[in-house]
Amino acid sequence: MAAAAALGSGLLRPRLLYAAAPDDPLPIPGGTPALGGGFHLYGPTPDGSFDPIDAEPASITNFDGVVGLTYVDGTVTRTTISTGERVELPFIASDMRFMHDGKPRQGTFGFI
């Protein structure tokens, strides 16, 4: 039964794999201690409450390009559609980043 389940689920089917290209992105080693170091990113914050302001903003080791990083503060308005109730909420130190190396890439990623 286990073999039938494995075959039916596709676990034992051959898959086409490609070798990594020399310029494929490689993740940075380690990561923020606040997340246990298991995620390959750092979360620099203006006040240093998560990671220091000068922590690595890129998440790719072999990155040769431009990184943009900004912190956005302000307020947002939440409106409940059924009641029309509106609540003003703070939007504090949202970390927005981009990385650009001038090479066309297929796919997009983002941190939210």
What this model shows, in words?
The protein is mainly beta. Helix content is 7%, strand content 26%. It is built from 1 helix and 2 strands; from the N terminus they run H-E-E. Strands 1-2 form a two-stranded antiparallel sheet. A hairpin with a 6-residue loop joins strand 1 and strand 2 (86-100). It starts with a helix and ends in a 12-residue tail after the last strand.
Brief sketch in words of this structure:
This protein is mostly beta strands.
User: What structural class results from the helix and strand content?
Assistant: mainly beta
Number of helices: 1
Unreliable sequence segments = none
Q: Mean pLDDT, as a whole number?
A: 77
Q: What's the count of strands?
A: 2
Order of helical and strand elements: HEE
Strand residues, percent: 25-35%
Q: Termini distance? A: 42 Å
**How do the strands of the widest beta sheet line up side by side?**
1-2
Instruction: Assign an overall shape.
Output: extended
Helix content: under 10%
**Major sheet:** 2 strands, antiparallel
Q: Compute the CA-based radius of gyration.
A: 21 Å
